[in-house]
Design a protein that fits this description.
The chain has 286 residues and is mainly beta. The protein has one domain (2-284). It contains three helices and 24 strands. The chain has helices spanning 82-89, 213-222, 266-269, and strands at 2-3, 15-16, 27-30, 35-38, 41-50, 53-63, 68-74, 93-96, 100-102, 110-112, 116-118, 121-123, 133-139, 147-151, 163-169, 172-174, 191-196, 201-206, 227-232, 241-245, 248-252, 258-259, 262-263, 278-284. Strands 2, 3, 4, 5, 6, 16, 17, 18 and 19 form a nine-stranded antiparallel β-sheet that branches. It starts with a strand and ends with a strand. The model is unreliable at 1-22 and 258-271 (pLDDT under 50).
C-alpha cells in the first residue's frame, strides 16, 4: 500500500529527543525505525517537532553505494510524476533531481539549470555561479567510492567529468566542516541528497511544507542520521519520492501554496501530482 503523509510505518518509535539545534527553534525528533526495502536499501520516516508540536516529517531513503547504482534521468519534454518515472526506468526508487529551467522557444521544454551528467552525457550549462555542491556517482574508472557528495567550498581537486552521473545544485545545507548552510524564512517542501559517516547516500524529502532551508539543514544534521554533508535539491511541488520494492510502496509529493498563478487550498494542494523533468533513480548494483 501507499503510506500516507501522516501515518507512520507499523512499529515506528514514539517521539524521542534525538537532538536539539542550538542555532534556531528547539527541534526534537522521533528515532528512526528502519525498514528494509532490500539488502543495502532502507527507508524510514522521522517526525520533526518544534517545541513539542509536530511540524513535518522527513522521508529518508538510505542506500549503500556498494549495493546500489545511481542514475540520472532527464526528459526535456517529459510529463512524468515520480511514480511514472519509477515505472518508466524500472528503478527500485526515484527522487527528484536538481533545479531546472524552461527553454525559450520550446514551450514547456526544460533542461537542468546547472551541470548534470547522465550516462556520461553532459546536460545543462557547464557553469552556474549559484552552484555550491554536486552529487556524483558511477565513476568511469570503476574505482570506489561509487558515489559521493562534493562540497565545492571545502573540497578541492575533484573532476565531475570522471563520473557517469552528476547533479549540481545549491546551497550546501550541511558543509563538510559541519557548519550549516541555507538562508531565508520561507517554508516549503524540501529535498536533499546527503552523505553520512559511513559513506552511505541518503535521499531526504519532507512530507509537508513547514521547514525553511535553515530549519531543514538543522533537521538533517541533528535528527540522528549521522549526516556529514547535505546538498539541497529542487523543492516546492517538485519535492517527490517514490519507492516500490520488497513489499514497500511509498509516495510523497511536494506541497506548494501557489501553482501556475492559482491559489489552492492546502487540502487540495496535498493531492496534486505535478510532472517533473528529472529524477535520480536507485537500482540494485549487479
Amino acid at each position: 500500500m501507499i503510506i500516507s503523509r501522516r501515518d507512520f510505518l507499523t512499529g515506528a518509535a514514539c517521539a524521542a529527543a534525538v537532538g536539539i539545534a542550538s542555532d534556531g527553534p528547539a527541534f526534537t525528533y522521533d528515532s528512526a525505525s528502519w525498514e528494509n526495502v532490500r539488502e543495502g536499501l532502507e527507508f524510514s520516516r522521522i517526525r520533526v517537532y518544534e517545541r513539542g508540536k509536530p511540524i513535518d516529517t522527513l522521508a529518508v531513503l538510505r542506500a549503500d553505494p556498494e549495493r546500489n547504482k545511481f542514475d540520472l534521468y532527464h526528459d526535456r519534454n517529459g510529463r512524468k510524476t515520480a511514480e511514472d518515472w519509477r515505472r518508466h526506468v524500472g528503478a527500485d526508487a526515484v527522487f527528484n533531481a536538481g533545479f531546472y529551467r524552461y527553454v525559450r522557444g520550446y514551450g514547456l521544454s526544460t533542461e537542468p539549470a546547472a551541470l548534470s551528467i547522465s550516462e556520461g552525457s553532459i546536460l545543462g550549462p557547464r557553469n552556474n555561479r549559484s552552484v555550491k555542491g554536486a552529487f556524483v556517482a558511477e565513476p568511469m574508472s570503476g574505482r570506489r567510492p561509487y558515489a559521493r557528495l562534493i562540497d565545492m567550498d571545502h573540497e578541492k581537486g575533484y573532476n565531475q567529468y570522471n563520473w557517469n552521473t552528476a547533479v549540481n545544485s545549491w546551497p550546501m545545507l550541511v558543509h563538510a566542516n559541519g557548519t550549516l548552510g541555507g538562508s531565508g524564512s520561507k517554508s516549503d517542501s524540501r529535498t536533499a541528497v546527503c552523505e553520512d559517516g559511513h559513506g552511505r547516500i541518503l535521499a531526504v524529502t519532507t512530507e509537508d511544507n513547514n521547514l525553511t532551508l535553515p530549519g531543514f539543514a538543522r533537521a538533517l544534521r541533528d535528527s540522528g542520521l549521522d549526516v556529514k554533508k547535505a546538498l539541497n535539491l529542487d523543492g516546492g511541488h517538485a519535492a517527490q519520492m517514490y519507492i516500490e520494492r520488497g513489499g514497500i510502496r511509498y509516495a510523497t509529493y511536494g506541497k506548494e501554496q501557489k501553482m501556475l498563478g492559482i491559489q489552492f487550498l492546502d487540502r487540495l494542494v496535498e493531492s496534486v501530482k505535478v510532472p517533473i523533468p528529472g529524477v535520480i533513480g536507485i537500482s540494485e548494483r549487479r
